[in-house]
Amino acid sequence: MIFRSSYPEVTIPEVSLSEFVLGPAAGRGDKPALIDGVSGQVLTYAGLAAAVNRAAAGLAAHGVRKGEVVALFSPNSPEYVVAVHAVATLGAVVTPVNPLYTAEELAFQLQDAAAAYLITTPALMERVGAAVRQAPVREIFVFGAAAGATPFATLLASAGPPPAVAIDPRTDLVALPYSSGTTGLPKGVMLTHYNLVANLSQMAALDPLGAGDTLVGVLPFFHIYGLVVIMNLGLHRGATIVTLPRFDLEAFLGVIQHYGVTRAHVVPPIVLALAQHPLVAQYDLHTLAVIMSAAAPLSVATARACVERLGCRIKQAYGLTEASPATHWSPDEAAKIKLGSVGVCVPNMECRIVDPLTGADLGPEAPGEIWVRGPQVMRGYLNQPAATAAMIDAAGWLHTGDIGYADAEGYFYIVDRIKELIKYKGYQIAPAELEALLLSHPAVADAAVIAIPDAEAGEVPKAFVVLKGAATDAELLAHVAAHVAPFKKIRAIERIEQIPKSASGKILRRLLIDRERAAAQS
Question: Based on the structure, what is the number of domains in the chain?
Fold first, then answer.
């Protein structure tokens, strides 16, 4: 059975991403497009359009050409948005990098993406310097000033328009975010201009977000959720976005109160804080009409508690980086929102629920693996044809690795996961990466990492290790922590006699997950 949206199909323009998002910007004049939530600095829509053109011209003068990859290693800021669209205007490709990454993790992405240029901040230059010794780039640009980098501000002094670049929206890449997919190490997700324009058009059909709205851009723009759902959808619809460089509850609440935020795009741990933290009572949040939660499952109990406390609507969405990201979206009307559901299929997309053991299609109320097919599905993984073929079959169906079901009205619910990926506060953690680091310790003979539930983060990594020498748990935890961003740290270790594996040597994580669940229930 193929599920489709209850909403009519939409027309998807054959245009570049920046033309679609910022085409109307100049005509919006002095309306604020972006506000720096820390400094209060305002960038109007007309100013944004002009800044993008000047930055694109400046980047072109420094040698950036169509098809080249530009890494963006920075927290959220208005300049971040300018950089994304300046790169896109030139037909170049943005690979956004988590600013929490270590130099090793940054170097891996720079090498894998073959990044020719890098844009960062002064605070991150030490890590950048270490990374580019392993993965050289042609030039480093910096928001502000730092030794060894070209100030981004000099690009904004460029005179004249950027060079005209012919972009084929269906084939030319615009973004290269990294995702672990259903298994293995992070891989470059090749997203075209058409992929992102399609998904923005699909989301816009279900969401009345508009020029009267103010959004809070607290989720990181390096993440596909922040990049597409907040930044690009918000600007496409003419909203004002207040950016914050990181989540801090007091700053977040202050921005909502001060700027009259109407819609907040968040992850479940933030909803939990809004529902329970005593600090929330000190702020006037009456303008907040809608909270959108995505990137990880949100419990009905937490959603209901937040609704009752704040008096706003809470809805969920579902998707994945490989789908640009949204595949399912909750309607905006209160009467059509179902707590616990990620909503209905977005328009112009097909969805199947498939028995993971037999491959048979399932109907309503029967849980199975969610498969999707539509114009927002990635072109594939960069230089990874085997991983691409494992993720997207010959008929174009993307196998999400998530288990869910649809009710009789076509609303979807996510109930489990086949894929190995760990979701910590919406961030992706690849077990294979942590396993490789454990195996590099001389005392570890074998290792496997799984997700275990955590009330605040959703999931955290737990390692099962087989030792061949003496090592304390603290030593092993510190060994891994020294090489990864803080959110990837292993939180628990269990010593085991043997890691369960298939005849081909593949780790049987499901057996470890079942063991963990049984232990929690005993």
Answer: 2
Distance CA 377, CA 351 (A): 12
Q: Assign residue 120 a region (left: φ > 0; alpha: ψ between -120 and 50; beta: otherwise).
A: beta
Q: Give the distance from CA 431 to its chain's centroid.
A: 18
Q: Between β-strands 93-97 and 69-73, what pairing exists: parallel, antiparallel or unpaired? A: parallel
Query: 3-state DSSP helix/strand/coil percent for the chain, to nearest 5?
Result: 35, 25, 40
Confidence of residue 193 (pLDDT cuts 50, 70, 90): very high
Contacts of 387 (CB under 8 A, 6+ apart): 181, 184, 187, 381
Quick one: pLDDT at residue 256? 98
Considering the domain architecture, whether residues 316 and 367 belong to the same structural domain is answered as yes
- Asked whether 78 and 41 are in contact (CB, 8 A), the reply is yes
Those residues whose C-beta lies under 8 Å from the C-beta of residue 420, and which sit 6 or more positions away, are 180, 182, 183, 184, 430, 431, 432, 509
Band of pLDDT at residue 432, cut at 50, 70 and 90? confident
Percent residues over pLDDT 90 in the chain: 89
Tell whether 393 and 497 lie within a shared domain. Answer: no
Contact 139, 63 (CB under 8 A): yes
> pTM for this one?
0.90
- Flag whether 415 is in a domain: no
Rounded CA separation 227/233 (Å): 9
